[in-house]
Amino acid sequence: MKTVRLQGKTILITGAAGFIGAFLAKKLLEKVRDIKIIGFDSLNDYYDVSLKEARLEMLKAYPGFIFIKGNLADTHQLRQVFREYQPQIVVNLAAQAGVRYSITNPEAYIESNLVGFFNILECCRHAEETGGVVEHLVYASSSSVYGSNKKVPYSVEDKVDNPVSLYAATKKSNELMAHAYSKLYGIPSTGLRFFTVYGPMGRPDMAYFKFTDKILKGETIQIYNHGDMYRDFTYIDDIVTGVINVVEHVPEENEEGVKYKVYNIGNNKLESLMRFVEILEDSLKAEGMITEPAQKEFLPMQQGDVYQTYADVSGLERDFGFRPETRLEDGLREFVKWYKEFYCK
């Protein structure tokens, strides 16, 4: 693999006000000298905008950070960003997230995840026309591409041709589009299949966040598939470390002559939904936020959801000597401490 020196580089991070994008930008600004981060985000109201603004305030403390509010589907604006800043590395984390939301609002996924990603690819393709060059495109995929695959842990070598949600289909489409552009135009690209990312300042639409909200309000939490579900929970710090490792290494040409790679980033540990709820309750008790277990309602599997996610991270270990290792107990404890400080003052 070719190593990319990040010192003095300009990196475009789309979705910079998002959970992963904000913490990635923060880590790069702290770790790399003379780096310039161009943060691009639409600040849409899919979830609490004040949380996105809080993440941005955290980033604005760094002189190397520049924020641009915009929509990836706005071709003219995105081209202007590439012309003005000429990023050498592009990390595309902007996307319409959420499996269940894709059932009720499919148009948002087509605009952001397909049209928006197409615009990113086109801007990377034409970067040299305005005096720039994109050395590496890194983009977010998702564990949802594995659909209802029965074989575990999920390997990047597995077939992923049977998505069970539109969200998953758009993420698989991103991988196919990136491969085509890598083949046709020589754009080095790496896709990252994230597995259930959690932690402080995380996404309010995620189960751990929604459960916490309801438990503290004394409301009943909904447990799908009657609790018989499993997830590979990955702490935000591990995700960021994994992304930076990938960003710094451009994939070599494969047997097809394409500089293209896909990795799983997961904790490589299967956790049951009921054990997850138990750990969350214990963390809330430890902070003095509750004294009794939550009221629970057990429901059937939701449309578009999957029984389990479980990451084979051998690619990360082989290529970077890294594997996520944060225990769920430690990660949820950090989330609860942050939640208490942010929402319960």
Written account of the structure:
- With 345 residues, the protein is α/β, with parallel strands linked by helices.
- Helix content is 40%, strand content 17%.
- The protein has a seven-stranded parallel beta sheet with strand order 4-3-2-5-6-7-13, with helices on both faces.
- The chain has one domain (2-194, 236-268, 310-325): Rossmann fold, CATH 3.40.50.720.
- Helix 2 (49-59) links the parallel strand 3 (36-41) and strand 4 (65-69).
- Helix 1 crosses helix 8 (236-247).
Give Rg in angstroms: 20 Å
Structural class: alpha/beta
CATH secondary-structure class: Alpha Beta
Which CATH architecture is right?
3-Layer(aba) Sandwich
CATH superfamily: NAD(P)-binding Rossmann-like Domain
Secondary structure topology:
Layout (H helix, E strand, L loop, with lengths): L1 E2 L6 E5 L4 H13 L4 E6 L7 H11 L5 E5 L5 H11 L3 E4 L8 H4 L1 H20 L10 E7 L23 H20 L3 E6 L2 E2 L8 H10 L4 E3 L6 E2 L2 E2 H12 L1 E2 L9 E6 L5 E2 H14 L9 E3 L15 H7 L7 H16 L2
Parallel strand pairs: 2-3, 2-5, 3-4, 5-6, 6-7, 7-13, 8-11, 9-15
Antiparallel strand pairs: 1-12, 10-14
Helix pairs in contact: 1-2, 1-8, 3-5, 5-6, 9-11
Quick structural overview:
By secondary structure, the protein is an alpha/beta fold.
Question: Keywords, please?
Answer:
345 residues; alpha/beta; Rossmann fold; seven-stranded parallel β-sheet; 15 strands; 17% strand
